[in-house]
Design a protein that fits this description.
Blueprint (H helix, E strand, L loop, with lengths): L5 E5 L3 H12 L3 E5 L11 E4 L2 E4 L4 E3 L3 H9 L6 E3 L4 E5 L6 E4 L10 H6 L5 H16 L5 H9 L2 H7 L4 H16 L8 H13 L7 E4 L3 H15 L3 E3 L6 E5 L2 E6 L2 E5 L1 E4 L3 H7 L1 H4 L4 H5 L3 E10 L8 E4 L6 E4 L10 E8 L2 H4 L3 H15 L8 E13 L20 E3 L12 H18 L29
Parallel strand pairs: 1-2, 1-14, 2-10, 7-16, 14-20
Antiparallel strand pairs: 3-4, 5-9, 6-9, 7-8, 11-12, 12-13, 15-18, 15-19, 16-17, 17-18
The structure holds flavin-adenine dinucleotide (FAD).
């Protein structure tokens, strides 16, 4: 048996794209299968009245080093912007705009001024929040016992135990918890919540600077990924649904609709519910855990006005149904008017509302925040709903997240839902892709430099890529 080792990647989201690039760069013969006619997975754009709207407003942080390295690899660094200093404008009906802005002091002092001046909670709540942030920064999740109890507790109950009031949780802590965990603090796991707050805000002063996609996601991710994969020698098969994966002739085989593809290794980079059904025959009861991860929805409301109604580029909202609002006019090349996108995480209630109800609720809420919107004509109103945007980051979820390597040699998992330590994010997906490629290349005994999930990711081939023996 001669020739390059064959790797099939199932799923063309950020995880699959990253894994395929790593394997191809290490010299494997890679085929990527994607059921949809485009790449990008959960981060995509759709066309409405000549505009490319994103299914959801995707932001990232400076500390998302694996995702930023992927953007670099795709040639997309110039299609995103990154704040030079964390700044979150916070809108509240009937109040002046507040801005949570870090200073240049080292962490955790970089947030002290922002918290001390934050007007949407009272003075004693601000002092308490500073103490809570200090305790959070010092929260060690290294011992097994602490980790286990943090996995079983909610971020909300821990915050309450520190004396944080429901008001402070809603007006301060949920500004971070909701968009990063896709759940409010009262439902989110303490271990994931503490990870996000520590990694993104408390450990280094610039980690939480926010990155935005300055063009539609399809132009930043989907199309550049297709180009980069093809340039790397990956065969990309779009509109190809993997229906079965089975052991065949000492290797693995992926089947769809009468076609069969053989491989030495398969990376399954599909959402967890899909992975559970796809791998049931091969992995048996191990897959039951994947399905237990559940899901959490995100809804986005898109409004194009006939005129500019606001000067903000993005802002959070408190005491309003608007969680986050983004001005996407420039990103979609709108020449006249203004396009505002409202992002709603953990949007269980909004998933139940029909288009008319959402229209009534959000046009009113936007008009309350931006009075000019009252007289503006709405040129376009659209809603995008993702019922399973992420797994549900509830207590206990960490235990259900599998590592990349499965019990079957050559069969590897990737995806933001796998055990990356990160919540379901672009960064988690990119990291999982690297982990999956590392596992596959190690199994195939392809010598390569393991990625460090940061900076420029190299997978340099130093050995012979011909097969070293039949797979068991
Ligand atoms: C609305 C929304 C907003 C979000 N906002 C943010 C944000 O602001 N910041 C952030 O970091 N993250 C955000 N996320 C989360 C982030 O988008 C995901 O965590 C990440 O994109 C997941 O990537 P993935 O590759 O793991 O999975 P996916 O992107 O789900 O990719 C899996 C791919 O597998 C394909 N597939 C499934 N079954 C098959 C099959 N049988 N055969 C072939 N292909 C198959 C799917 O079509 C899909 O393309 C958001 C998600 C959503 C939905």
């Amino acid at each position: 048996m001669n020739g390059r080792r064959r790797v099939i990647v199932v799923g063309g989201g950020v995880a699959g794209i990253t894994a395929a690039l790593d394997c191809a760069q290490a010299g494997a013969q890679v085929t990527l299968l994607e059921v949809r006619p485009r790449l990008g997975g959960a981060a995509y754009s759709f066309e409405r009245e000549g505009l490319l709207l994103d299914n959801g407003q995707h932001v990232f942080l400076r500390c998302c080093t694996a995702y930023r390295a992927l953007l670099e690899r795709l040639g997309s660094s110039g299609r995103v912007s990154l704040q030079s200093r964390l700044e979150i404008p916070v809108l509240r009906p009937g109040h002046r705009l507040a801005v949570l802005r870090r200073n240049r002091l080292p962490a955790p002092l970089h947030l002290a001024g922002a918290l001390a001046r934050y007007p949407h909670i009272d003075r004693s709540a601000r002092l308490r929040a500073m103490l809570t942030a200090r305790r959070l920064a010092g929260l060690e999740l290294s011992s097994a016992i602490e980790l286990e109890s943090a996995n079983e507790e909610t971020l909300g109950s821990w915050l309450s135990a520190q004396g944080e009031s429901p008001e402070s949780i809603a007006r301060l802590w949920d500004l971070i918890a909701l968009p990063t965990l896709n759940l409010p603090a009262e439902r989110a796991s303490l271990s994931l919540g503490a990870f996000v707050l520590k990694t993104g805000l408390l450990q280094s002063k610039d980690a939480g600077d926010i990155g935005f996609h300055a063009q539609p996601l399809s132009e930043v991710l989907g199309r550049p990924a297709l180009r980069a994969l093809r340039e790397a020698g990956v065969e990309v098969r779009l509109s190809w649904r993997a229906e079965h994966i089975l052991r065949e002739g000492g290797g693995l085989q992926v089947r769809s609709n009468g076609f069969a593809l053989d491989a030495d290794a398969v990376i399954v980079a599909v959402p967890h519910a899909r992975a559970a059904t796809l791998l049931e025959d091969l992995l048996g009861s191990a897959c039951e855990d994947y399905a237990r991860l559940g899901s959490s929805p995100i809804v986005n409301v898109h409004v194009v006005y006939d005129r500019r109604v606001s000067d903000i580029e993005f802002a959070a909202g408190v005491d309003t149904p608007v969680q986050y609002v983004f001005d996407r006019s420039a990103a979609v090349g709108l020449r006249e008017g203004q396009y505002l996108a409202v992002s709603l995480s953990g949007a269980y209630a909004e998933m139940e509302m029909n288009g008319e109800e959402l229209r009534e609720r959000y046009l009113e809420a936007l008009a309350e925040l931006f009075p000019l919107a009252r007289d503006a004509e709405v040129r376009l109103f659209a809603v995008s709903r993702e019922h399973a945007a992420t797994f549900a980051a509830v207590p206990g979820s960490s235990a259900a997240r599998p590592l990349a390597q499965t019990a079957l040699e050559g069969l590897v998992l990737a995806g933001a839902w796998t055990d990356t330590g990160w919540p379901a994010t672009l960064e988690g997906a990119a990291r999982s892709g690297h982990a999956a490629a590392d596992a596959v290349l190690a199994t195939l005994r392809v010598e390569h430099e393991r990625s460090e999930f940061g900076g420029e990711v190299q997978a340099t081939v130093t050995g012979d890529l011909s097969p070293v023996g039949d797979a068991p």
